[in-house]
Structures are given as C-alpha cells and as structure tokens.
Amino acid sequence: MISKRIKDNKRRLVELFNHSTDFVTYEFESESNIKMMVCYIEGLIDRNILDRDILRSLTLNVKNLKEIRKYIMTPKIEEIDTINEVVDEVVYGKVVLFAEGLKKGFVIELSKWDKRQVEEPQAESVVRGPKEGFIEDIAVNKVLLRKKLRNNNLVFEDLRLGKQSKTDISLAYVKGIVNLEVLEEVKKRLDKINIDAILESGYIEELIEDSPKSLLPTITNTQKPDIVAAKILEGRVAIFVDGTPHVLIVPRVFVEALMSSEDYYLRPYFSSFLRIVRVIALFITVYAPGIFVALMLYHQEMIPTVLLVSAADAREGVPLPLTVEVLLMIITLEFTKESSLRLPKNIGSTVNIVGALVLGQAAVQAGLVSTLTVILVSLTALAEFIVPQLTQAIIMYRLFATIMGGFFGIYGVICAFFVITLEVISLESFSIPFAWPLAPRNTSGLKDTFIRVHLRKYITRPKALAKQNVKRQIPPKGE
Amino acid sequence: MILRRKKVVIISYILIIAVLTGCFNAKELDELGISLAMGIDHEDGKILITAEVVDPAFSSEASNTGEGSSVRYVQGIGNTILEALKDITLKFDRGIYSAHNKVLIFGEEIAKQGLVSHMDELIRDREQRESSYMLIAKGAKAYEVMGINSGIETIPANYILGLIKNVESNPKTVDFSIMDYLKHYYHEGHHPVAGVIEKIQKNEINETGEKSGTKGYELTVIGSALFKKDKLIGYLNGNDTKALNYLLDNVKGGIITFPATSVLEEVQSQESEQILNSVNVIKVKTKNDVELEGDKVILKSKVYVRAALGELLENTDISKEGNLKRIEDDCSKTVELNIKAAVQKVQKEFGIDIFGFGIVFHRKYPKQWKKIKDYWDEIFADAEYQIEVNTHIIRTGLINRPLEK
C-alpha cells in the first residue's frame, strides 16, 4: 500500500528498484507548503512537460490536497493505491506523483524517448509503393497501420509477454473480416507463452508456429504497413511486438513468398510476368546445382555435345571432384554473404572485392574451380535474392538437392524434389494448408498466385481465410 | 505419432534411393574420352575400331587459334566390336564415351560381309546412340575417310555431320541413322539404305592457313548404299538417290532442273543446247500404292511437289496466263522420268525393294502377302511402275521476265 508519508514511499521505491541509478525521485513543496514527490525513470519521460506544465503548475497553485488533480495539466491521469503498481507504471515511462498525506499516487502519462525516424526498410525496398517502414516503437507502428485503415473496425488488442522484458504485444485485425478461428488460435498460443523475455518478434514466431522443425517459415514477417494492411484485410491477424520493426502476420501460405507488394501497384501483365520469373528463380536457385552435378557426372549424354566439350575443357585440371567443387563454391558464396552482412559497412566493400576474387576470375585462373561452376553458383545466388522470404530454406534445400544429385544423379534430384514438395504440402499454418491454393486447389485463389489478374477480378477475399464478409469489392454494373 | 511417421517416410525414401537408383558409377568429365565418330572395319579377319576422340583443351584452343588438332584417333582390334572397344583402353588413357557419337562409318568390306552380327553391341550398350548417322565408306576402309576435314568445323566428325545435314538443301544423299537402318531391316518388304562417304581429290587452290593433314582431299556424301537385308550390294548415284528420297517422302528441299519443252521446238533448229529451268523445292508429298490385277502387280506413286521458281533460262513471261502452268508440267515430267528411271534401274540391277512398296502391299493385301512375301523381291523386279507427278509453283521470285539475250 502507498503510505501517507512521502519519505516512506521514497525509501520503499528506491529499495524496490535496488538503488538503480536511472530511477529518479524528486521532492518539492508548493507555495502553500504542501509536500509532493514525483518519481520516474530518467530518459523515458518528457522532462520539458514535467518541468513546465506539471511541476511549475503544482508548485504555484496547489493550496490543499484536494486541488492536486486539478492542476496536473495533462489528459491521461490514473490513480493507484499500491507500490507494486507504481513500479509497473514507472518502467513504461510514466511519472507517479505522491503527496504528503494522500494514500494514493497519480500516474501521469509522459513517456517520451528517442526513436528512429520512419524510413524505408532496406530489406523490402520497392520502386513503386509507399516507402515508409515500421520502426522499433510499437505506438508509432500502430499509428502507421491506423493511417492505412482509418476505420473503427481496425482493432488492436494489447497484451504483455515476458517476465523480465514485459514486452508490449499487440494483435491487430479487422473486425468483421478476420478469421475468428485463427484469431482464437493466436490468442490461445500467445497465452501459452511463458518466457523471461521477448526481444524480437522472432521469439514469438518460434513459440507459436505450427511446425517448429520445418525449414520453411509458416509465419510472415514484414516491415511495411501497406503489406500488413493488405494481409489483415484478407482475414489475417498481425502481431506487433514492441522493440522491433518486424511485424508478424498469420496465417501464411507458401505462395506468398512469390509475391511482392509492388505486384499490386504495377500493371497486371507485368506483375504476372514477374511472378513467373520468381517461380523460375525459385526452381533454379534450389535445383540448378543438383541438376548440373547430376548431368555432368551421370548423364553426360543429355548435354549438347558442344557444351559437353567446353565443360570438359573447363574441368580439365581441376583437382576436386565435381560435387565437392560445387559444394565448396556454395559454401564460399555463403561466406561472402555472411561476412558482408556482419561486417561494418565501411569494411564491407573489401569483402565484396575479396569475395569476387575468390568466387570469380582468380579461382578459375588458378585452376581451383571450373568456369561453369562459377557461373552456376553466381546464377543461384542471383536467383536466391529474387525470393528473399525463403532464403533460409532455399540454402538448406539447395545443399540437399546438390548432395542427392552428386550421389544419385537425376534420380536423386527428383527424390529431393519429392521430399521438398512433400514438406511444403504437409505443412499447415494456423489450420490453413500451407500449399493453398495449389494443394488443396482453389481456382479463385489461383487468380493471385502465379499470375496476378486485374484488380476488378478480385471480387472475394481468399476463401481459405475469409469466412465472413467475403466480398472485397462490388464491380461496376454492366461489366 | 505424426512425427514418427514422417521420420519413417524420410528414412524409407533414403533406403529406396539406395536400392532403386538407376544411375551409379559417377564419371567425372575429365575421365571421359568423348568419341564423336567411330569407324568399324574388317581387317585380317578381325574387327578394327577407329574412334575420333575430342581433346577438350585443344578443341577450345584450336577454335581460338586455328592451330593444332582438336581430336585424337585411337584404334582397337578384337574379334567382336566389344573386344575391339576394350582393346582401345590398353593404348589410350581415357575410357571411350560413345554417347555423343555423331556418325558411325562402316568400311566397305565389313558392309559387304553383313552388318547384323556387329549391330548388337551398338544397340544394346546404353551409351551408344541409335540416332547416330550411319555411313558406308565407298571403296575404302572407314579409317581412311576419317580425319579429313575440309570444312569450317574444327572437329572432323562435325564436318561430316554438317555434310549429312545438308540433305535439307540437296537430296542427293540420305540422312539415315542406325535406327532407320534397323527399322527398314526389320520391315518385311523393305530393304535398308545407308549413307555413303567418299574421299575425293580436291582442286588445288592457294589457301592460306589451311589445316594440316587435310590437304588435297575432301569428303563427299553423294549417293547411297543399298543393302540386301544386312549385306551391301551396291551404290546408287546422286540422281537416283534423289529419286529414292522422293519415293521415301524424305525430301526437305533441294532443286529440280528440267528442260524447257515448248521453247525447245523453236530453238532446237538454231542451237542444239538444251535450255534448262530450275525450281527450289519447298515441299514434296509422296504416296506409294500397289495394285493387284489378276496376277500382275502394278506399283504406283503419286508425287506432289510444291516449289518456287529458282532459275528461268527460257525467254518466257511468266506473268502471262498458261506459261507458269506449262513450266509446272515440264517440271512434273522431268521428275516423273527421273524417278521412273531410278526405279527401273533398281528393279533391273539390284532386284530389291528399297522403296517400301512391299509394306504398302502388305497393308493393302494382307492375305496375299503371306503367300508371296518370300518372293516379293522377284515380284518387285518384274512389276510395272506408274507414276503421276503434280507440281505447283507458289512463288516466282522478284522478276517476271528473264534477262534479254
């Protein structure tokens, strides 16, 4: 309980915070000799408003205890009774005001801290479309989404997770459209989480996903509000996590990896072309090394003679077996990618040059690798970046297909294809089949899969997801 | 439970792969001696195989610099084809990889003795391709025609391949593969035909930078080789081969040159020289037929030629009505005569049905066929032949009248 005496409160609070230096208490007296105290955490609050609008007003005006509330000039004020509540409020950037003789505290919302500017997310840059991206602050992120859907049906449901981190989590969905089963399931799974800290939305992703052992992610993450808006309008649920710009969206289907928000902003024919290019890229980046190794080692008769002769010329004098050579180059590619990612940006260019040397000309001239392998691995790398959402799975699948190709020829590559396809169609994301709309097939869903038809043709929301209010638009009469 | 089932599925996959795999024995490219052409000969009672093996390093260098040889020739001797092939490994550092064989050349001697006993390995082995072209070295050993390169290609096999593929623009040769040979071999009432390759002297022209080893000679694939079942019995010349191609419906192009009849009458008095016109063949459609009249067998062919005017030496304005029709008729007549002559030559000289009339007969009169199939060749040789040719000129080129003389 909060004591009437300020000194007691102060002593207990300081002890509760273990004398942590960022916890500040400040005692002052009004001109009518009423003793008061504020406590807050340094840096989490707006000191200007505290000094100018609150401390000053209180000091000048307060004549008796009943008037205190009148002179706190901010809209958000709550009254609390226990010391533990004080702790909970203070850590979220609120100021608690005590007065000598009152058995309660006033919680004043003054939180303010330094935030990154809203800027274009580097991982999801687009040519056409909004450039803004989420930042690390959940309140700003919610605003960004609200700006896309100015609608009372957009609902945020807040909860806090993590015993130590007490991270703000917020579910966002559109009432009347959201798939209620999915929403219930999300809430149920979030309730089950009992962990000490949620430091990034990746924690949540891993704790609530359907198949934690699968290589494929069954939960989307994005940094762009327009993507979140589009997806929750299809009946999905978004999960905002404080402290990270990555917002999770469930459920996810496999073909979403082939889509980009830009597809809907560009003309449909070009978008469809791009999607087909992405399908080809996905196939190439996973299977090209496997097929290459299989053809070169087992099925030389399938290669055109001219290509075979030049491939044989390139292989002449290369010391390693072809499978090992290709695997080594794939690993080297991962070295280059990883090191240029982890290094500070100003050294990054060095890595690029060194990587290009290792992967390219020098290695070929030294006779360590054959030119065809270099071309092939560069091709797979290029194709990989076309489908960025699946990178993690692609690399593992590629290694798998290459090894199978190296040991068993085309037969092995086909088996790898079956195993990978089996995994894709066996997954589920929040009770939605992962391979929808391919398996189970859904004709209206296919309109937005490998091709993107004209916007006027999208009359309903995806059928697997949207169970209520399925009409998306009413097309003009006479068309 | 589900997880366990999944594990079982994955493990069984791996086991199935290990058990069922059809492709084992990985072969690195630098262990292969890629053979592009193979010559098969009979010498001193044994089989002699000559393989043209590409040297990859040299091959790209040779195409860059134009110097050096891009192929190696290796030979093996044995009692059978397989034995001869394996004999090569004792003298050559890489295993012969024959899946890329473009051409198989048989020496004349071995072709005369019969090829079937040597064919088994060529179609049983998974590496050998039935689609490789089959050629008979006319009057020579196979290895005598190998290694001659008078073309642009750096690899002699590709030079030969180019010659065969030119059948598209000149049907005086045939482009039959091992598969075609076997197909005809197994057909009752159809004897197989194969391509011919011959080494000929080349006119001396002062070439600079001529490839060494090819001086003085070039190859030609004119004509075709006739087989009685599997034994070589003779050759057809270029014009007869052309007729053969017409009757086998195997024409993809080429020209027809024919004398101009109408003008002949006027001009003949002044000049004895023939005036010739030519057309470029666009399409040829042939239908063979057989008719049984009592005991007499009549062979019939109906040939439709679609062509474009290629060369007009008679002084005619083709834009005038009737002239083009007359030229078409002239052309038809020449084709008719040529084909008739070729068929009669084959009937008289060889007495074997290489045109496939037997197959037509078999289809049309299956009951009678059973009785006569053993004597079909004799019946063919004595049969009457009728042919009907229709020419249709669909393009006349850029000018209407020929140049004034």
List the SSEs and their pairings:
The complex is a heterodimer of chains A (479) and B (405).
Chain A: H1 6-16, E1 23-29, E2 35-41, H2 47-61, E3 77-80, H3 83-90, E4 94-99, E5 105-109, H4 138-148, E6 154-161, E7 167-174, H5 180-192, H6 201-208, E8 220-222, H7 225-232, E9 237-241, E10 247-250, H8 268-297, H9 305-315, H10 322-342, H11 345-359, H12 361-365, H13 371-384, H14 391-426, E11 428-429, E12 432-433, H15 443-446
Antiparallel strand pairs in A: 1-2, 2-4, 3-5, 4-5, 6-7, 7-9, 8-10, 9-10, 11-12
Helix pairs in contact in A: 4-7, 8-13, 8-14, 10-11, 10-13, 10-14
Chain B: H1 2-20, E1 32-43, E2 46-54, H2 56-65, E3 71-78, H3 81-88, E4 95-97, E5 103-107, H4 108-113, H5 116-124, E6 133-137, H6 142-145, H7 156-165, H8 178-186, E7 193-201, E8 217-220, E9 224-228, E10 231-236, H9 238-247, E11 255-259, H10 261-267, E12 276-293, E13 296-312, H11 323-350, H12 357-364, H13 366-372, H14 376-382, E14 384-395
Parallel strand pairs in B: 1-4, 1-5, 5-6, 6-7, 13-14
Antiparallel strand pairs in B: 1-2, 2-3, 7-8, 7-9, 9-10, 11-12, 12-13
Helix pairs in contact in B: 9-11, 12-13
Report on this structure.
Chain A contains 15 helices and 12 strands. Chain A is of the alpha+beta class. Chain A folds into 3 domains: 6-109, no CATH class; 122-252, no CATH class; 265-429, no CATH class. In chain A, the strands form 3 sheets. Chain A has a 5-stranded antiparallel sheet with strand order 1-2-4-5-3, covered by helices on one side. A 5-stranded antiparallel sheet of chain A has the order 6-7-9-10-8, sandwiched between helices. In chain A, β11 (428-429) and β12 (432-433) form a beta hairpin. The model of chain A has no long low-confidence stretch (mean pLDDT 88). With 405 residues, chain B is α/β, with parallel strands linked by helices. Chain B has 2 domains: 21-236, no CATH class; 240-405, Nutrient germinant receptor protein C, domain 3 (GMP Synthetase, Chain A, domain 3, 2-Layer Sandwich). Chain B is 35% helix and 29% strand.
